[in-house]
Amino acid sequence: MFVISNLLYAIAVVLQLFIYVEIFAVILSALLSWITPFRYSSFRQFVDAVANIVLRPLRKFIPPIGPVDITPMIAIFVLVFLENFVVRTLFDLAVRLR
Questions:
Q1: Which long-range contacts (CB under 8 A, 24 or more apart) does 81-85 make?
Q2: CA distance to 24, 59, 82, per residue, from 64 (Å)
Q3: What does the entry list under GO cellular component (predicted)?
């Protein structure tokens, strides 16, 4: 059972790291969207590409409210929920299987 436990623990760690990177990318993308000179920067395009992994599917369901796009805020809420529910569940399950 320790092999399955270690596998679940490793999946939880990788998923947690992915969620943290996505949260950081969404926040940085939102902040960089206020700065016009960096619109065509390769760094900005990279950050937007990473953030769009989560933002693009949400934008299909959540339209902008006037000039305000609340999709980054909703994305952060969803990512925090996934981190607190899925990742913590995988960690607890891995500990119980040992």
A1: 82/15, 82/19, 83/16, 83/19, 83/20
A2: 21, 8, 23
A3: membrane
User: Which carries the bigger pLDDT value, residue 69 or residue 92?
Assistant: 92
Residue with tokens 């990512």: 79
Provide the greatest CA pair distance for the chain. 55
Place of tokens 């760094």: 43
Query: Residue 72 CB: number of other CB atoms within 10 A?
Result: 20
3-state secondary structure of 69: coil
pTM of the entire predicted model: 0.87
Instruction: Judge whether 5 and 98 are in contact, CB under 8 Å.
Output: yes
Give 25's strand partners.
none
Structure-block tokens of residue 51: 């953030």
Domain definitions of the chain by residue range: 2-96
